[in-house]
Amino acid sequence: MLDVRDLEVTFTSGADEVRAVRGVSLTVQKGESYGIVGESGSGKSTVLRAICGLAPTSAGHILLDGKELATPRRPDFYRRVQMVFQDPYASLHPRHTVDAVLSEPLAIHRFDRRDERIAEALSAVGLGQGFRFRYPHQLSGGQRQRVAVARALILEPQILLLDEPTSALDASIQAEVLNLLDRLRAERGLTYVMVSHDLAVISHMCERLMVMEHGLAVEELTRDDLRQRRAGTPYTQRLLKASAGYTREAT
Ligand SMILES: Nc1ncnc2c1ncn2[C@@H]1O[C@H](COP(=O)(O)OP(=O)(O)OP(=O)(O)O)[C@@H](O)[C@H]1O
């Protein structure tokens, strides 16, 4: 469904150049949950941003259903592909109510039945209708991230790009939001590409994953490889060690 080939992203500011992504390729099947893991600065978020057309791609190809994506992305791309960011504090406008946050994409894409869709989106993420006219500061971190997920889902996309969607949350709330994302994917047949620095989170959420280091894809593993601790590189072994001890609680 999604095909990234030999992607290169270079940021330049003045004389400085940062080669954030250096020849990364990945293929994600429809309905799959694909993870990208690596230390801070390894280029994970930049890959997601490049898919959305938000990073300066200097080489490579990004295809959706076999068709190369136009730059800038066309509006219908955002009906099919939505992104959820790490920090719900930053991604929600402080002076917009939940209703305004959810109405905006519906208005931009001229969706009908807006009231109904907002009610449905809130209940899909486990928030009652009482949350509809609240402002972000009247929500907990977990509730805010649920609103961000509702906003991403309200256009009924097929693919969610999830950039550290739970790393700003407490461990117990993190587990709740991960379980919610898992359930939504199963119910709606969604395809996920999820970025995290935490291999434990990725191994719970994703069937396959790519490990990134310094802008390079160092290896691709399956969930089984991870569970058997079959990491091919010392770097991945180190990430595995760093994430040991994390357990996901059931809801
Ligand atoms: N807009 C930008 N301008 C200049 N450099 C950038 C920009 N965005 C990212 N970079 C650089 O690109 C590299 C990769 O950053 P990226 O955010 O993709 O890493 P990451 O693996 O997602 O890390 P983190 O988990 O900390 O977000 C870093 O060196 C970063 O400083």
From TrEMBL:
Q: Name one GO molecular function term.
A: ATP hydrolysis activity
Could you tell me the keywords of this UniProt record? ATP-binding, Nucleotide-binding, Transport
List, alphabetically, the SUPFAM superfamilies matched.
P-loop containing nucleoside triphosphate hydrolases (SSF52540)
One GO biological process this protein is involved in is: transmembrane transport
Q: Which parts pass through the membrane?
A: none
The keyword tRNA-binding belongs to this UniProt entry's keyword annotation: no
**Record has Metal-binding as a keyword:** no
CDD domains assigned to the protein according to its UniProt record, in alphabetical order: ABC_NikE_OppD_transporters
Q: Which InterPro entries match?
A: AAA+_ATPase, ABC_transp_ATP-bind, ABC_transporter-like_ATP-bd, ABC_transporter-like_CS, P-loop_NTPase
Q: Which Pfam families match?
A: ABC_tran (PF00005)
ABC transporter domain residues: 4-239
Q: Which family does it belong to?
A: Belongs to the ABC transporter superfamily.
PANTHER family, per database record: D,D-DIPEPTIDE TRANSPORT ATP-BINDING PROTEIN DDPF-RELATED, TRANSPORT ATP-BINDING PROTEIN
Q: What is this protein called?
A: ABC transporter ATP-binding protein
- Which species is the source of this protein? Primorskyibacter flagellatus
> Which lineage ranks, top first, belong to the organism behind this chain?
Bacteria, Pseudomonadati, Pseudomonadota, Alphaproteobacteria, Rhodobacterales
